[in-house]
Amino acid sequence: MLPAIEPGDWLFVNPRVSNWPKPGSVVIFHEPDSGELAVKRVAAGPGEKVRFAAGYLTLADDEAWLTADASPGQTGRAGFGPPVDSNRFGPVPRSLLVGRVLFRYGPLRRVGRISSPDGPTGP
Amino acid sequence: MTVTTALARLLAPRTTARAHCDLPCGIYDPEQARIEAESCHRMIEKYNASDDPVFRDRALHNKEERAELVKHHLDVLWHDYFKPEHLEAVPNLHDLFWQASKQVSKVKASVDPADSKKLLDLIDEVDAAWKATGGPAKTRVSGRPS
Predict the structure, then answer these.
(1) Is A9:A95 a contact under the CB 8 Å cutoff?
(2) Does B22 reach chain A within 8 Å, measured CB to CB?
(3) pTM for the structure as a whole
(4) pLDDT, tens only, A41-98
(5) Are A43 and A87 in contact (CB under 8 A)?
(6) Which of A5, A82, A96, B56 is within CB 3.0–4.6 Å of A30 for a Cys-Cys bond?
(7) Interface predicted TM-score (ipTM) over 0.85
């Protein structure tokens, strides 16, 4: 999730969310395949249409499409494989949502809001 | 212990969330999918050549297991090996994988050798795409054994 979130960031999370927050929000959730706790950005919410492979799919009324900020090209140039996100594990149901990231409270030099994938200001 | 250290310990997160990427081995070859698809083709031939219902059941079971492996190997190639920049060399890449994946599903439910032959042909097209994007040199330790 670089540059918005760096390894070691301390994130303040609101676990009292009743539904998927709006696209652009950063969320903590359990990955569908592994059950691991993960952090990604909401790219599309319930009922929205998303591009996938050579076509489109429509999300169910409890699903979101979660993506990494980095493209496969960027992670590839950094020596890693493609990001593990909805392009890999598909739509994520509401039951796997843990909370919404509100801001970063550590380390001190990085305290503040979570930037958008395109720049320093964001949701 | 200073107040700052104590405060930091108190506020430190108790849980870690990951934002990970794959760390793949980097070894890819459509031959893996091809071998499993050949097994499907051969199982269909054996099924059609036999009158033994138990043998035929086993052939079907074997075919469906192998077809699942074909799908897995195609998915790994599609998601992990091929990158957006490869679309320049192979503009029909997504359509090719979509057709191949659909054909695997057809082979799972079919005992017609024409269906498994078509799957082999599609995997050969994937193989050509892999070669056109430098696969043999980039993703095998010493190229593909001849």
Answers:
(1) no
(2) yes
(3) 0.56
(4) 999 999 999 988 778 889 999 999 999 988 777 776 666 667 889 988 889 999 999 9
(5) no
(6) A96
(7) no
